[in-house]
Amino acid sequence: MIKHTYLQKFRTAHMPGKWISALAVKGNNLWVGTLDGLYRMSPGQTEDAGLSLPITAIAGSPTGQLWIGTKEGLYCQDETGWEQISSHAVRALCFDGKGNAWTTDGHTIWGPDSNEMEFAIRDMLFVDEQLWLATDEGLYAEERLWTQEDGLLSNDVHALMFDGVGHLWIGTALGISLFDMQGTWYPLTGKNGLPYEEVHQIVNGSEGERWVGTGIGVACYTRGRWEYYAGKRWLPSDEVTAIAVESKGKVWIGTTEGLACIERRLYDFESKAAYFEQRIIDRHNRHGFVTSCNLVNPGDVSNIVHHASDNDGLWTALYVAAESFCYAVTGSSEAKRRAQESLGALMALEEKTPLSGFPARAIVRKGEEQVDLSHGEWHESPDGEWFWKGDTSSDEIDGHLFAYGIYYDLVADEQEKQQISDVVGRIMGYIVDHDFLLIDVDGEPTRWGVWSPRYLNGPWKDQQGLNSLEILAHLKTAFHITGDPKFQDAYEYLIQEHHYALNTLDQKIVPPGIVNHSDDELAFVAYYTLLLYEEDPDLRALYLLSLERQWQYERPEYCPLWNFIYGALSGNHCDTDQAILTLEQIPMDLITWTMRNSHRADIQQNPNIDRFEEIQSVVAIPADERPVMRWNGNPYRLDGGDGGHSEDDGTFYLIAYWLGRYHGLVI
Fold first, then answer.
1. 580 — phi, psi (to 5°)?
2. Which percentage of the chain shows pLDDT scores above 90?
3. CB atoms within 10 A of CB 472
């Protein structure tokens, strides 16, 4: 089997805290200009280059020499060090076809000739022996000033780049103007996909891409589309000051707070899965429970605090399922061991409460260090050794039954099958015996543990569709695992006496109703086991009709888990190309950096809202440009994150990838 390979993006930090003012690649060296001097970076080392002045420009001459512009003059590198060529302050530097250096301090041009201009000069460029100037009043060349009246997007011009085929790329405060240098203009703005229109730098990439530095982040035009890099996931600061492209898929980005390298490496999905799996082992596994962790210092993964969350059961269940699929595909003994360990943790949630069949949201051993308890109802276990969290949600039951079914089918030996049968029998027996309610220690239903006809066909009308789908899936799974006719009888009772199968048909809530993306995750997980185990053609027809409606609403999100579940269950085309693109775009860095997109010129905002009333877009934001989120997050969400105070474990990638692999939808 040939693995699917693609270019995975990585960010590497260098020289944090320094204001980067200029960059240039020459040979195996990156030359870095800062406000306190010049540095030379080569693989494995960074050294002071011996020029301790505020650097403003770096350029290589046609003869191969390195020239440095500073606030105190122009310098050229020779065999003994640095030779000062002039004492004029340098803002921009370029060379003509004869090898002559031309500089400006922002108002006066120096070269073989000197000339004082009446406007502020930001950048300069020679094309065919003609000097072009980016100024605060327009584009200047041949004693002529081109302005908005001629077709320029804005007179506030910052950057120039010649593409080698006769076009000048002009970065302005309102976008990029393409100019044939004769009179024809073409605008590149938010309407054409440019993420942010205040352009400060434009640099040719090594493979025809265009790197654009803006007032808020970096944009790259590649493979026919714009990509956007902003926030501390990618950059030390969003104020970009310099860009330099290296030939092997690397681009160096200078900012006011340091230097970053964005690198594209040939990668495959299984290697990405292994990366996340190892990270889970390193810092996201607590007694088998797998979930996010909190970071004591933003972005610093060396000092973590485990998080006992509201949904330890759900997140760990998805991990059990992911590793079970991995084992089924690869036969890996390590995948089996990981699945077994977390299955044991899942079972412990039911074992540590005083109510047989009632699983906790989370459990924490007394005296356990470095654990952050979420808010809610915490109780002492009967043995006095644990704390357990009550008010267990329907989310947890959804996850438990999903994981137990998949592990039972794909991993379990006979002893484990009996253990799973016992715990599933207790959980679902407890729910059936209490009129399809999850009764807490206070004798009342938990807030969301409600599947009773008294509620769903009455005051809980809004939850009728989803909760009907859930309980049918849970009962069918319980019957599949235990063989106890009690669960099949309850299943048929809800369908025949209380129209639960029909309730599923329009379970997806859509605008003008308030969308809850967590409900989408619960629905797809329930569809999977329900359609996996139901064989009756009439019931399958109803459930597939419900699934089709759900997926058509979710289709524009390009979620690989939704797409693969839909494709596996229906046998229909499931937009695998778009799902694979999302898997590619998921960043390797899952720290919850604050990400902002509400300022972007290429995004149309949607007046509809989700349950959190978040600002959102009409089109889903690519996974590497939006805040870190699991599949229950809102992919249209423009802004979010917590400043890097936590890190996601990556199970959301693993469950989508390994389920897709198991069903042959991704390789």
1. -65, -40
2. 87
3. 25
At CA 130, angle to CA 126 and CA 133, rounded to 5? 65
Which residues is 80 bridged to in the sheet? none
> Half-sphere exposure (CA, 13 Å, Cβ side) for 303?
7
Q: 30-63 in b/e burial notation, b at 16+ Cβ within 10 A? A: bbbbbeebbbbbeeeeeeebebebbbbbbbbeee
Helix axis angle, 651-662 to 576-585, nearest 10° = 150
Could you tell me which residues are beta bridge partners of residue 302? none
What tokens appear for 225 in the block? 């589309």
Q: What does the H/E/C string look like for 456-503?
A: HCCCCHHHHHHHHHHHHHHHHHHHHHHCCHHHHHHHHHHHHHHCHHHH
Q: Are 317 and 324 in contact (CB under 8 A)?
A: no
Among 194, 204, 202, which Cα is nearest to 174's? 194
**What are the tokens at 575?**
């937009």
Contact 225, 215 (CB under 8 A): no
Residue 619 backbone phi and psi in degrees, to 5: -110, 140
Q: What is the pLDDT of residues 494-543, one digit of tens each?
A: 999 999 999 999 999 988 788 899 999 999 999 999 999 999 999 999 99
pLDDT at 113: 84
Question: Between 651-662 and 312-330, two packed helices, what is the crossing angle to 10 degrees?
Answer: 40
**What is the residue-averaged pLDDT of the chain?**
95
Q: Which two tokens stand for residue 203?
A: 């640099």
H or E, element range at 158 = strand 157-162
What is the mean predicted confidence (pLDDT) over 90-104? 95
Helix axes 312-330, 394-410, angle to 10 degrees: 20
Tens digit of each residue's pLDDT (9 = 90 or more) over 465-498: 999 999 999 999 999 999 999 999 999 999 999 9
Q: Do residues 172 and 199 lie in contact, with contact meaning Cβ atoms separated by under 8 Å?
A: yes
pLDDT tens digits along 402-458: 999 999 999 999 999 999 999 999 999 999 999 999 999 999 999 999 999 999 999
Structure tokens given for 296:
């004591």
DSSP string of 309-355, one letter each residue: -TTHHHHHHHHHHHHHHHHHHH--HHHHHHHHHHHHHHHHHHHTSSS
What digits encode the pLDDT tens for the residues 244-295? 999 778 999 999 999 999 999 999 999 999 999 999 999 999 999 999 999 9
**pLDDT for 118-128, tens place per residue?**
899 999 999 98
CA dihedral angle for residue 103, residue 105, residue 108, residue 113, rounded to 10 degrees: -20
Mean of pLDDT values over 2-15: 86
Residue 241's identity, in one-letter code, is: T
The pairing of beta strand 371-373 with beta strand 304-308: parallel
Residue 2: the pLDDT is: 67
Q: Go through 180-201 and write b for each residue having 16 or more CB atoms within 10 A of its CB, e for each that does not.
A: ebeeeeebbbbeebbbbbbbbb
3-state secondary structure at position 412: coil
State the angle between helix axes of 414-433 and 485-498 in degrees (0 to 180), rounded to the nearest 10: 40
What does the pLDDT look like over 214-223, one tens digit per residue? 999 999 999 8
Helices (H) and strands (E) in the chain, counts: 14, 41
- As a whole number of angstroms, the distance between CA 138 and CA 95 comes to 21
Place of tokens 């004082």: 116
